[in-house]
Amino acid sequence: xxxxxxxxxTTMVGSALALGACGTDSTEEAETDTESAxxxxxxxxxxxxxEGKVSGDGSSxxxxxxxxxxxxxxxxxxxxxxxxxxxxxGGGFEKFIAGDTDFSNASRPIKEEEKQKLDEAGVDFTEFQxxxxxxxxxxxxxxxxxxxxxxxELKKMWIEDGTEKKWSDINPEWPDEKIVFYSPGxxxxxxxxxxxxxxxxxxLVKSAQLSEDDNVLVQGVQGDKNAIAFFGYAYYLANQxxxxxxxxxxxxxxxxxxxxxxxxxxxxxxxVYAKNSAIKENPAFYDFMKYTIEKxxxxxxxxxxxxxxxxxxxxxxxxxxxxx
Length: 324
Description:
By secondary structure, the chain is of the alpha/beta class. It folds into two domains: 52-132 and 269-323, D-Maltodextrin-Binding Protein, domain 2 (3-Layer(aba) Sandwich), CATH 3.40.190; 136-252, D-Maltodextrin-Binding Protein, domain 2 (3-Layer(aba) Sandwich). It is 50% helix and 19% strand. It contains 14 helices and eleven strands. Helix 1 packs antiparallel against helix 2 (22-48) and helix 13 runs antiparallel to helix 14. It is elongated, with a radius of gyration of 27 Å.
């Protein structure tokens, strides 16, 4: 802009010297053009300012990503009010089905029965994948006997069989102490995922203390040497100074092992499900979803998850644009 103004001023001075009185007209025209350009720029900026409300709910695992997105978005569109609840994946879908929210965060794919209820409610939706997570097993920092667990050991540990579980039941060399279990609540997508890939849909051990808030699980393990829990990778990273992560089948969850799928079977995608009608009818929601997809990879890495390949975000943007 400065070079453009300098060029304009030079031209004006040259014209004044060469043309005398005609220079006055040139100056007035140039000033008029400048004022018009400034006015057009101001109008464009005003038109870009949106107002409206956007509401979402769902997974506590996905919440850190969306909270980071919302914080950044508020600096660009301060008149758009975005609220994001944390009722767990299942609880979020219940509100989505009821028509209470524009989008639902999920740490597992939507279930067939949830799709059916949305169809019955007349809600069309689109699935957007936003990041990868590695469901992480953690124990107390003072636990010096567990470094790695197999899927079979996890089954023996976490499946209810009517007995009181002790560490020595899993490995005779481990302490003869009762295992204290902390688990996400039954509305959590993390619970559902663990139930599917580890428990084979058997009953979770009845003594487990459940919570939809992963921070409660973190605090439980921090306070008990015999405790074990599972939750999203970001919550482990945020508390790695006070927690110890357990390898699964000899593989530790890291950005590299999660993205490659080597951390199997506990690597998983994270989702946002958006209501199609809200995308079409609410400019603020369309703009927020566009911003979310554009920033999801960056925000995922910032809070401790793993970004998708860039082409996945490009596909998401194309799917969003097709709904507008």
